[in-house]
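Record minuted for completeness.

…
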Amino acid sequence: MGATGALEVVKAIHESRNVTQLDLSSNGLGKVELSGGTAAQASTVIRELFATGSLIESLSLRDNGIGDADTRTIAEVLSENTVLHELDLSYNQIGYLGAIELSKMLSQNVDLRVINLEWNNFRNTGASKLLSEGVLNNNTLKTVNLSACGLDDACAVLLGRVISENAIEEFYVANNRIGAAGAEAIAKGLPASSSLQTLVLDGNPVKDKGCLALVGVVTSGEARSLRLLSLKHCECSPETELSGSQSNSSSCKILISEGRS
């Protein structure tokens, strides 16, 4: 569809005045096109969408090749938006500069509840910025997905703080570079949380030490609100895998598996 087609969709939405959910996934909005003799891309679509009292509560821009420049506009437009509750920017090309803009937006927006940023190019520096200056300063987010965004142990320390200080209910950080030290930092934050229900760390090299630290907090009853802890493919030994599987309780399900044949 591209940006030109998306602008036509936005025009129809404005005319209907009854659309609250919009999925523009996989439409190449990050590519510049000509619309009416002027350049159009994701930023153009977003400005137009939210220009006149938008009713959109859920927006997906997944897999559109969106980069830092478009992200800046998206962040600026949404900083003071009071209607949008769910935003999906996963599988794009947002880097460090985009992470800075998103952190600014998250520190100002008080109505966003769900944000999916999976599979972007933040790396550890961008992810750290996003956590420390964005998520940590946002008290309304309930679900955050930062899977495959380059988080490392330093980011995990910040994640531990977010878990202990914020009211997030679901956190997904699968397929990053969080090791044993990072897992231990996260484990330390769990007892202070009264809201976190789901924590997914699949595909991180936390190994036995990290897995046992997290499982230990759950089995001790200190992670009072947690209902699901997923540690699949975290480079754990068969012994740790067995121990984790046997630690399931009525209050929290632990998924720990290396998929061995």
In short: The first helix runs from residue 2 to 16. Residues 22-29+56-257 form a domain with the Leucine-rich repeat, LRR (right-handed beta-alpha superhelix) fold (CATH 3.80.10.10).
